[in-house]
Amino acid sequence: MRGEDTCQLGATTAADEIMLLDLWRHTFPKDLRFCRQCDILHAQLSSVSRRYRDKRTIPKAEVQMVLDGYQSVPYAWMRWPIVRTIACVRLVNAIRVYRGERAWLFTNAVKTEHEKLAAWFDKHCATRTVIDRERFVHDCLEPFHMATAYHRGFLLGLLVVIQLMVFLVACHFFERVVYVWLFYWQGYDRAGIRAWWVNVLQRHVTPELIDAYRHLVPPAVVLLTRSSTAAATGGLLAGAAGGNIVTPPAVDSTKAIAEKAPDRAQVVAMGADHNVGLDCVIGVQVAELTAPDGLTRVVFIPTPRIGPVSFYRAVGRICRSVQGVVLEEVCLESLKALPPSFYFPLASDDTNKGTRETQPVVGATFPSLGLHHRFMDLIGDDPEIQPPQIFPGTVQPTMPAAMLMGATPLALRYVLFPDMFYGTRAEARLGWGRLKEVVEAQQVTSIAMPWSVSQITNLECSLVKQGWRVTHTSVIPWLCLEEVADHFCDYYGIK
Fold this sequence. Notes:
Blueprint: H1 2-27, H2 36-51, E1 57-59, H3 60-68, E2 70-72, H4 81-86, H5 89-98, E3 103-105, H6 108-124, E4 130-132, H7 133-141, H8 148-172, H9 174-185, H10 190-202, E5 221-225, H11 226-241, H12 254-260, H13 264-269, E6 280-290, E7 297-302, E8 306-307, H14 309-320, E9 324-327, E10 347-351, E11 358-362, E12 372-373, E13 389-392, H15 399-407, H16 410-416, H17 425-441, E14 446-451, H18 453-465, E15 469-479, H19 481-491
Parallel strand pairs: 2-3, 7-14, 9-13, 9-14
Antiparallel strand pairs: 1-4, 5-6, 6-7, 6-15, 8-12, 10-11
Protein backbone atom coordinates (compact mmCIF):
# COMPACT_ATOMS: atom_id res chain seq x y z
CA MET A 1 0.00 0.00 0.00
CA ARG A 2 2.81 2.33 0.83
CA GLY A 3 4.47 1.58 -2.52
CA GLU A 4 1.31 2.49 -4.42
CA ASP A 5 1.11 5.79 -2.55
CA THR A 6 4.72 6.50 -3.41
CA CYS A 7 4.11 5.77 -7.11
CA GLN A 8 1.00 7.95 -7.08
CA LEU A 9 2.91 10.76 -5.39
CA GLY A 10 5.70 10.48 -7.97
CA ALA A 11 3.21 10.58 -10.84
CA THR A 12 1.54 13.67 -9.32
CA THR A 13 4.89 15.42 -8.94
CA ALA A 14 5.83 14.64 -12.54
CA ALA A 15 2.46 15.92 -13.76
CA ASP A 16 2.94 19.13 -11.76
CA GLU A 17 6.37 19.62 -13.28
CA ILE A 18 4.99 19.13 -16.79
CA MET A 19 2.19 21.61 -16.06
CA LEU A 20 4.66 24.20 -14.74
CA LEU A 21 6.86 23.63 -17.78
CA ASP A 22 3.95 24.19 -20.13
CA LEU A 23 2.91 27.27 -18.19
CA TRP A 24 6.42 28.69 -18.46
CA ARG A 25 6.66 27.79 -22.14
CA HIS A 26 3.39 29.55 -22.97
CA THR A 27 4.19 32.60 -20.89
CA PHE A 28 6.31 34.03 -23.71
CA PRO A 29 5.30 33.94 -27.40
CA LYS A 30 7.32 31.82 -29.75
CA ASP A 31 10.08 33.49 -31.77
CA LEU A 32 10.06 36.52 -29.49
CA ARG A 33 12.30 39.17 -31.01
CA PHE A 34 14.52 41.22 -28.72
CA CYS A 35 16.17 42.99 -31.66
CA ARG A 36 15.81 46.74 -31.98
CA GLN A 37 15.88 46.55 -35.77
CA CYS A 38 13.00 44.05 -35.69
CA ASP A 39 11.10 46.54 -33.58
CA ILE A 40 11.64 49.21 -36.23
CA LEU A 41 10.55 46.88 -39.06
CA HIS A 42 7.46 45.83 -37.12
CA ALA A 43 6.59 49.47 -36.40
CA GLN A 44 6.84 50.34 -40.11
CA LEU A 45 4.52 47.48 -41.11
CA SER A 46 2.08 48.31 -38.30
CA SER A 47 1.93 51.95 -39.38
CA VAL A 48 1.00 50.83 -42.91
CA SER A 49 -1.77 48.63 -41.51
CA ARG A 50 -3.11 51.44 -39.28
CA ARG A 51 -3.24 53.91 -42.15
CA TYR A 52 -5.66 51.62 -43.98
CA ARG A 53 -7.57 50.27 -41.00
CA ASP A 54 -10.86 51.60 -42.44
CA LYS A 55 -10.35 49.78 -45.74
CA ARG A 56 -10.27 46.12 -46.69
CA THR A 57 -7.14 46.33 -48.87
CA ILE A 58 -3.67 47.84 -48.70
CA PRO A 59 -1.83 49.09 -51.78
CA LYS A 60 0.96 46.77 -52.77
CA ALA A 61 3.36 49.69 -53.22
CA GLU A 62 3.13 50.60 -49.50
CA VAL A 63 4.47 47.25 -48.34
CA GLN A 64 6.93 47.09 -51.24
CA MET A 65 8.38 50.42 -50.14
CA VAL A 66 9.01 49.09 -46.65
CA LEU A 67 10.70 45.92 -47.92
CA ASP A 68 12.82 47.84 -50.41
CA GLY A 69 14.11 50.07 -47.63
CA TYR A 70 16.41 47.29 -46.42
CA GLN A 71 19.39 45.52 -47.89
CA SER A 72 21.87 42.92 -46.69
CA VAL A 73 25.20 43.90 -45.18
CA PRO A 74 28.24 43.72 -47.46
CA TYR A 75 29.77 40.90 -45.42
CA ALA A 76 28.05 38.20 -43.38
CA TRP A 77 30.54 38.53 -40.51
CA MET A 78 29.25 42.08 -39.91
CA ARG A 79 26.19 40.50 -38.27
CA TRP A 80 28.26 38.94 -35.52
CA PRO A 81 27.42 40.69 -32.22
CA ILE A 82 31.05 41.37 -31.27
CA VAL A 83 32.00 42.67 -34.68
CA ARG A 84 29.01 44.97 -35.08
CA THR A 85 29.64 46.37 -31.61
CA ILE A 86 33.35 47.04 -32.16
CA ALA A 87 32.87 48.32 -35.71
CA CYS A 88 29.93 50.58 -34.69
CA VAL A 89 27.72 49.04 -37.39
CA ARG A 90 24.59 50.42 -35.74
CA LEU A 91 25.98 53.96 -35.86
CA VAL A 92 27.04 53.55 -39.49
CA ASN A 93 23.58 52.24 -40.35
CA ALA A 94 21.95 55.27 -38.68
CA ILE A 95 24.13 57.61 -40.73
CA ARG A 96 23.21 55.72 -43.93
CA VAL A 97 19.49 56.06 -43.18
CA TYR A 98 19.92 59.74 -42.38
CA ARG A 99 21.55 60.26 -45.79
CA GLY A 100 18.63 58.53 -47.52
CA GLU A 101 20.29 55.18 -48.23
CA ARG A 102 18.75 51.80 -47.50
CA ALA A 103 19.10 50.35 -44.03
CA TRP A 104 21.27 47.32 -43.38
CA LEU A 105 19.93 44.00 -42.13
CA PHE A 106 22.81 43.76 -39.71
CA THR A 107 21.23 41.30 -37.25
CA ASN A 108 20.19 37.72 -37.84
CA ALA A 109 16.74 38.35 -36.35
CA VAL A 110 15.78 41.19 -38.67
CA LYS A 111 17.30 39.30 -41.64
CA THR A 112 15.10 36.27 -40.87
CA GLU A 113 11.95 38.35 -40.52
CA HIS A 114 12.69 40.31 -43.69
CA GLU A 115 13.19 37.10 -45.66
CA LYS A 116 9.90 35.67 -44.34
CA LEU A 117 8.05 38.84 -45.32
CA ALA A 118 9.68 38.92 -48.78
CA ALA A 119 8.77 35.26 -49.40
CA TRP A 120 5.16 35.82 -48.34
CA PHE A 121 4.99 38.96 -50.50
CA ASP A 122 6.32 37.17 -53.60
CA LYS A 123 3.93 34.25 -53.06
CA HIS A 124 0.67 36.13 -52.48
CA CYS A 125 1.18 39.49 -54.16
CA ALA A 126 3.10 38.73 -57.31
CA THR A 127 0.14 39.34 -59.67
CA ARG A 128 -1.91 41.75 -57.55
CA THR A 129 -1.86 45.49 -57.03
CA VAL A 130 -3.54 45.39 -53.62
CA ILE A 131 -3.19 43.22 -50.50
CA ASP A 132 -6.01 41.98 -48.32
CA ARG A 133 -5.49 43.80 -45.01
CA GLU A 134 -6.90 41.10 -42.74
CA ARG A 135 -4.75 38.45 -44.37
CA PHE A 136 -1.71 40.70 -44.12
CA VAL A 137 -2.31 41.22 -40.42
CA HIS A 138 -2.97 37.52 -39.82
CA ASP A 139 -0.01 36.20 -41.82
CA CYS A 140 2.62 38.89 -41.23
CA LEU A 141 1.93 41.00 -38.16
CA GLU A 142 0.41 38.54 -35.69
CA PRO A 143 3.26 35.96 -35.89
CA PHE A 144 5.72 38.85 -35.63
CA HIS A 145 6.04 38.98 -31.81
CA MET A 146 7.97 41.98 -30.58
CA ALA A 147 9.30 42.36 -27.07
CA THR A 148 8.45 46.07 -26.80
CA ALA A 149 7.62 45.89 -23.11
CA TYR A 150 10.82 43.97 -22.46
CA HIS A 151 12.77 46.60 -24.37
CA ARG A 152 11.28 49.35 -22.26
CA GLY A 153 11.98 47.43 -19.08
CA PHE A 154 15.55 46.87 -20.18
CA LEU A 155 16.05 50.55 -20.95
CA LEU A 156 14.52 51.55 -17.61
CA GLY A 157 16.77 49.10 -15.80
CA LEU A 158 19.77 50.41 -17.71
CA LEU A 159 18.93 53.98 -16.69
CA VAL A 160 18.59 52.91 -13.06
CA VAL A 161 21.97 51.15 -13.17
CA ILE A 162 23.62 54.21 -14.74
CA GLN A 163 22.05 56.45 -12.11
CA LEU A 164 23.27 54.19 -9.33
CA MET A 165 26.77 54.16 -10.80
CA VAL A 166 26.79 57.96 -11.04
CA PHE A 167 25.43 58.15 -7.50
CA LEU A 168 28.13 55.88 -6.09
CA VAL A 169 30.90 57.66 -7.98
CA ALA A 170 29.59 61.05 -6.85
CA CYS A 171 29.41 59.87 -3.24
CA HIS A 172 32.79 58.17 -3.10
CA PHE A 173 34.82 60.51 -5.30
CA PHE A 174 32.99 63.76 -4.62
CA GLU A 175 36.02 65.75 -3.51
CA ARG A 176 38.16 64.44 -6.35
CA VAL A 177 35.42 65.29 -8.85
CA VAL A 178 35.26 68.83 -7.46
CA TYR A 179 39.05 69.08 -7.69
CA VAL A 180 39.08 67.95 -11.33
CA TRP A 181 36.22 70.28 -12.18
CA LEU A 182 37.81 73.31 -10.51
CA PHE A 183 41.44 72.76 -11.47
CA TYR A 184 41.25 71.19 -14.91
CA TRP A 185 37.82 72.13 -16.29
CA GLN A 186 37.44 75.64 -14.89
CA GLY A 187 41.17 76.33 -14.86
CA TYR A 188 41.18 77.95 -11.42
CA ASP A 189 44.46 78.58 -9.65
CA ARG A 190 44.94 78.38 -5.89
CA ALA A 191 43.45 81.82 -5.30
CA GLY A 192 40.39 81.02 -7.41
CA ILE A 193 39.80 77.68 -5.67
CA ARG A 194 40.15 79.32 -2.25
CA ALA A 195 37.62 81.98 -3.21
CA TRP A 196 35.24 79.33 -4.56
CA TRP A 197 35.34 77.28 -1.36
CA VAL A 198 34.93 80.36 0.80
CA ASN A 199 31.75 81.27 -1.06
CA VAL A 200 30.45 77.69 -0.76
CA LEU A 201 31.12 77.49 2.98
CA GLN A 202 29.57 80.91 3.49
CA ARG A 203 26.17 79.37 2.60
CA HIS A 204 26.28 77.43 5.87
CA VAL A 205 26.52 80.56 8.02
CA THR A 206 24.18 83.01 6.28
CA PRO A 207 21.26 83.59 8.67
CA GLU A 208 17.98 85.30 7.99
CA LEU A 209 17.44 88.19 10.38
CA ILE A 210 14.23 90.19 10.53
CA ASP A 211 14.99 93.89 10.84
CA ALA A 212 12.14 94.43 13.30
CA TYR A 213 13.77 92.02 15.76
CA ARG A 214 17.37 93.09 15.26
CA HIS A 215 17.55 94.70 18.71
CA LEU A 216 15.71 91.79 20.42
CA VAL A 217 17.68 88.72 19.38
CA PRO A 218 21.44 88.28 19.04
CA PRO A 219 23.01 87.48 15.67
CA ALA A 220 23.45 83.78 14.96
CA VAL A 221 26.93 84.23 13.48
CA VAL A 222 29.80 86.37 14.75
CA LEU A 223 33.33 87.01 13.53
CA LEU A 224 36.06 86.30 16.05
CA THR A 225 39.82 86.54 16.23
CA ARG A 226 41.93 83.70 17.51
CA SER A 227 43.06 85.73 20.49
CA SER A 228 39.45 86.29 21.59
CA THR A 229 38.13 82.84 20.70
CA ALA A 230 39.36 81.10 23.85
CA ALA A 231 38.13 83.88 26.10
CA ALA A 232 34.75 84.00 24.42
CA THR A 233 34.11 80.25 24.54
CA GLY A 234 35.91 79.10 27.64
CA GLY A 235 32.99 79.78 29.91
CA LEU A 236 30.56 78.06 27.57
CA LEU A 237 32.49 74.82 27.31
CA ALA A 238 33.28 74.71 31.00
CA GLY A 239 29.66 75.39 31.94
CA ALA A 240 28.35 72.77 29.54
CA ALA A 241 30.75 70.18 30.87
CA GLY A 242 29.52 70.88 34.38
CA GLY A 243 25.88 70.55 33.41
CA ASN A 244 25.04 74.27 33.54
CA ILE A 245 24.34 76.19 30.39
CA VAL A 246 24.00 79.54 32.14
CA THR A 247 27.31 80.92 30.97
CA PRO A 248 28.91 84.34 30.74
CA PRO A 249 28.76 86.80 29.19
CA ALA A 250 25.27 87.42 30.56
CA VAL A 251 22.85 89.66 28.72
CA ASP A 252 20.16 91.11 30.91
CA SER A 253 18.54 93.58 28.53
CA THR A 254 17.76 94.03 24.87
CA LYS A 255 19.80 97.21 24.87
CA ALA A 256 22.92 95.25 25.67
CA ILE A 257 22.18 92.89 22.78
CA ALA A 258 21.79 95.78 20.37
CA GLU A 259 25.12 97.26 21.51
CA LYS A 260 26.93 93.93 21.37
CA ALA A 261 25.59 92.66 18.03
CA PRO A 262 27.76 93.45 15.00
CA ASP A 263 26.33 94.76 11.78
CA ARG A 264 24.65 91.98 9.73
CA ALA A 265 26.24 93.30 6.54
CA GLN A 266 29.62 92.50 8.04
CA VAL A 267 28.54 88.96 8.87
CA VAL A 268 27.08 88.30 5.43
CA ALA A 269 30.03 89.81 3.61
CA MET A 270 32.65 87.85 5.52
CA GLY A 271 32.30 84.92 3.10
CA ALA A 272 32.88 87.12 0.05
CA ASP A 273 35.69 89.12 1.65
CA HIS A 274 38.78 87.07 0.90
CA ASN A 275 41.01 89.43 2.83
CA VAL A 276 39.58 88.44 6.22
CA GLY A 277 42.80 86.64 7.05
CA LEU A 278 43.69 83.43 8.80
CA ASP A 279 43.44 85.09 12.22
CA CYS A 280 39.63 85.35 11.93
CA VAL A 281 37.36 82.51 12.97
CA ILE A 282 33.62 82.29 12.38
CA GLY A 283 31.64 81.50 15.50
CA VAL A 284 28.01 80.68 16.16
CA GLN A 285 26.23 82.41 19.00
CA VAL A 286 24.20 80.26 21.36
CA ALA A 287 21.20 82.08 22.79
CA GLU A 288 19.18 81.06 25.85
CA LEU A 289 15.61 82.33 26.02
CA THR A 290 13.57 82.18 29.20
CA ALA A 291 9.78 82.08 29.46
CA PRO A 292 7.92 85.01 31.07
CA ASP A 293 7.23 82.92 34.17
CA GLY A 294 10.89 81.87 34.38
CA LEU A 295 10.08 78.16 34.54
CA THR A 296 11.09 77.09 31.04
CA ARG A 297 14.18 77.90 29.02
CA VAL A 298 15.10 77.10 25.44
CA VAL A 299 18.67 77.08 24.16
CA PHE A 300 19.06 77.78 20.45
CA ILE A 301 22.30 76.40 19.01
CA PRO A 302 23.14 77.39 15.41
CA THR A 303 24.49 74.16 13.93
CA PRO A 304 25.88 74.09 10.38
CA ARG A 305 25.69 70.84 8.45
CA ILE A 306 29.48 70.43 8.31
CA GLY A 307 32.25 71.40 10.68
CA PRO A 308 35.10 70.11 12.84
CA VAL A 309 34.48 67.33 15.33
CA SER A 310 35.36 69.62 18.24
CA PHE A 311 32.47 71.90 17.30
CA TYR A 312 29.93 69.07 17.39
CA ARG A 313 31.32 67.76 20.64
CA ALA A 314 30.75 71.20 22.16
CA VAL A 315 27.19 71.17 20.79
CA GLY A 316 26.70 67.70 22.27
CA ARG A 317 27.85 68.85 25.72
CA ILE A 318 25.24 71.60 25.67
CA CYS A 319 22.53 69.18 24.53
CA ARG A 320 23.39 66.72 27.29
CA SER A 321 22.99 69.45 29.91
CA VAL A 322 19.28 69.94 29.17
CA GLN A 323 16.26 67.70 29.62
CA GLY A 324 15.00 67.61 26.04
CA VAL A 325 16.32 68.14 22.51
CA VAL A 326 14.25 68.97 19.43
CA LEU A 327 16.14 67.50 16.48
CA GLU A 328 15.83 69.03 13.05
CA GLU A 329 16.09 66.04 10.73
CA VAL A 330 14.20 63.51 12.85
CA CYS A 331 10.52 62.65 12.48
CA LEU A 332 8.34 60.77 14.92
CA GLU A 333 8.45 57.55 12.91
CA SER A 334 12.26 57.37 12.94
CA LEU A 335 12.92 58.09 16.62
CA LYS A 336 13.63 54.42 17.31
CA ALA A 337 15.64 53.87 14.13
CA LEU A 338 18.19 56.68 14.17
CA PRO A 339 21.52 55.67 12.61
CA PRO A 340 24.52 55.48 14.94
CA SER A 341 26.26 58.24 12.99
CA PHE A 342 23.64 60.61 14.39
CA TYR A 343 25.03 60.04 17.87
CA PHE A 344 28.70 59.32 17.24
CA PRO A 345 31.28 60.60 14.77
CA LEU A 346 32.83 58.28 12.24
CA ALA A 347 35.87 56.50 13.68
CA SER A 348 38.65 54.33 12.29
CA ASP A 349 41.22 52.18 14.07
CA ASP A 350 44.71 53.55 13.66
CA THR A 351 47.60 51.44 14.97
CA ASN A 352 50.44 53.53 16.40
CA LYS A 353 53.84 52.84 14.91
CA GLY A 354 56.23 51.02 17.19
CA THR A 355 53.54 49.92 19.67
CA ARG A 356 50.79 47.35 19.80
CA GLU A 357 48.25 49.81 21.13
CA THR A 358 45.34 50.61 18.89
CA GLN A 359 43.55 53.89 19.54
CA PRO A 360 40.38 55.06 17.82
CA VAL A 361 41.08 58.09 15.67
CA VAL A 362 38.19 60.26 14.59
CA GLY A 363 38.03 60.38 10.80
CA ALA A 364 36.61 63.20 8.73
CA THR A 365 33.65 62.59 6.46
CA PHE A 366 35.26 64.85 3.86
CA PRO A 367 39.04 64.30 4.17
CA SER A 368 40.13 66.92 1.66
CA LEU A 369 38.27 69.56 3.67
CA GLY A 370 39.08 68.12 7.07
CA LEU A 371 35.41 68.45 8.06
CA HIS A 372 32.80 66.12 9.48
CA HIS A 373 29.09 65.91 8.75
CA ARG A 374 26.68 67.07 11.43
CA PHE A 375 26.08 64.68 14.32
CA MET A 376 24.63 65.05 17.82
CA ASP A 377 26.64 63.34 20.53
CA LEU A 378 23.76 63.00 22.96
CA ILE A 379 25.26 60.11 24.95
CA GLY A 380 28.81 61.19 25.70
CA ASP A 381 31.50 59.33 27.60
CA ASP A 382 30.04 59.60 31.11
CA PRO A 383 27.59 56.73 31.76
CA GLU A 384 26.20 58.51 34.84
CA ILE A 385 24.74 61.37 32.79
CA GLN A 386 21.30 60.51 31.50
CA PRO A 387 20.80 61.43 27.83
CA PRO A 388 18.14 64.03 27.12
CA GLN A 389 14.71 63.16 25.82
CA ILE A 390 14.48 63.39 22.04
CA PHE A 391 11.62 65.20 20.34
CA PRO A 392 11.04 65.13 16.57
CA GLY A 393 11.49 68.39 14.71
CA THR A 394 9.88 67.47 11.40
CA VAL A 395 7.35 65.15 9.81
CA GLN A 396 7.90 62.08 7.70
CA PRO A 397 8.62 63.12 4.11
CA THR A 398 6.42 61.99 1.27
CA MET A 399 7.50 59.10 -0.91
CA PRO A 400 8.71 61.29 -3.84
CA ALA A 401 10.66 63.52 -1.46
CA ALA A 402 12.18 60.52 0.31
CA MET A 403 13.21 58.99 -3.01
CA LEU A 404 14.73 62.29 -4.11
CA MET A 405 16.68 62.61 -0.86
CA GLY A 406 17.87 59.03 -1.18
CA ALA A 407 19.05 59.60 -4.73
CA THR A 408 20.95 62.80 -3.85
CA PRO A 409 24.58 62.25 -2.80
CA LEU A 410 25.44 63.11 0.78
CA ALA A 411 28.08 65.64 -0.27
CA LEU A 412 25.60 67.65 -2.32
CA ARG A 413 23.15 67.84 0.59
CA TYR A 414 25.74 68.59 3.25
CA VAL A 415 28.47 70.61 1.53
CA LEU A 416 27.37 72.33 -1.65
CA PHE A 417 23.64 72.85 -1.00
CA PRO A 418 23.00 72.76 2.76
CA ASP A 419 19.45 74.12 2.42
CA MET A 420 18.36 71.72 -0.34
CA PHE A 421 16.03 69.67 1.88
CA TYR A 422 16.51 70.99 5.41
CA GLY A 423 17.13 74.45 6.79
CA THR A 424 14.18 75.88 4.84
CA ARG A 425 11.30 78.04 6.05
CA ALA A 426 8.93 75.10 5.80
CA GLU A 427 11.17 73.05 8.09
CA ALA A 428 11.41 76.02 10.46
CA ARG A 429 7.60 76.20 10.67
CA LEU A 430 7.45 72.49 11.45
CA GLY A 431 10.13 72.91 14.10
CA TRP A 432 8.27 75.83 15.63
CA GLY A 433 5.11 73.72 15.83
CA ARG A 434 7.00 70.90 17.55
CA LEU A 435 8.62 73.35 19.98
CA LYS A 436 5.24 74.83 20.91
CA GLU A 437 3.87 71.35 21.62
CA VAL A 438 6.77 70.54 23.93
CA VAL A 439 6.61 73.89 25.74
CA GLU A 440 2.84 73.83 26.19
CA ALA A 441 2.89 70.22 27.40
CA GLN A 442 5.50 71.21 30.02
CA GLN A 443 7.17 67.82 29.76
CA VAL A 444 10.60 69.33 30.30
CA THR A 445 11.82 72.65 31.66
CA SER A 446 15.01 73.00 29.60
CA ILE A 447 15.07 72.40 25.85
CA ALA A 448 17.86 72.61 23.29
CA MET A 449 17.28 73.26 19.61
CA PRO A 450 20.38 72.58 17.46
CA TRP A 451 19.10 74.02 14.17
CA SER A 452 20.40 75.21 10.84
CA VAL A 453 21.87 78.70 10.89
CA SER A 454 19.63 80.01 8.13
CA GLN A 455 16.35 79.71 10.07
CA ILE A 456 17.29 79.62 13.73
CA THR A 457 16.80 83.38 14.11
CA ASN A 458 13.19 83.06 12.96
CA LEU A 459 12.59 80.50 15.69
CA GLU A 460 14.04 82.86 18.28
CA CYS A 461 11.83 85.69 17.02
CA SER A 462 8.76 83.46 17.36
CA LEU A 463 9.45 83.03 21.07
CA VAL A 464 10.29 86.70 21.53
CA LYS A 465 6.86 87.62 20.16
CA GLN A 466 5.30 85.56 22.96
CA GLY A 467 7.15 87.48 25.67
CA TRP A 468 10.26 85.35 26.03
CA ARG A 469 13.50 87.21 26.67
CA VAL A 470 17.14 86.51 25.97
CA THR A 471 18.98 85.86 29.22
CA HIS A 472 22.37 84.51 28.17
CA THR A 473 24.49 84.24 25.05
CA SER A 474 27.74 82.44 24.38
CA VAL A 475 29.88 81.74 21.33
CA ILE A 476 31.20 78.46 19.91
CA PRO A 477 33.97 78.77 17.31
CA TRP A 478 33.06 77.01 14.08
CA LEU A 479 35.96 77.25 11.63
CA CYS A 480 38.06 79.55 9.48
CA LEU A 481 36.92 79.55 5.85
CA GLU A 482 40.37 80.36 4.54
CA GLU A 483 41.91 77.47 6.47
CA VAL A 484 39.45 74.99 4.96
CA ALA A 485 40.17 76.28 1.46
CA ASP A 486 43.93 76.05 2.10
CA HIS A 487 43.49 72.52 3.44
CA PHE A 488 41.78 71.51 0.20
CA CYS A 489 44.55 73.04 -1.91
CA ASP A 490 47.27 71.43 0.19
CA TYR A 491 45.49 68.07 0.11
CA TYR A 492 45.70 67.96 -3.71
CA GLY A 493 49.01 69.78 -3.98
CA ILE A 494 47.69 72.93 -5.65
CA LYS A 495 50.41 75.57 -5.56
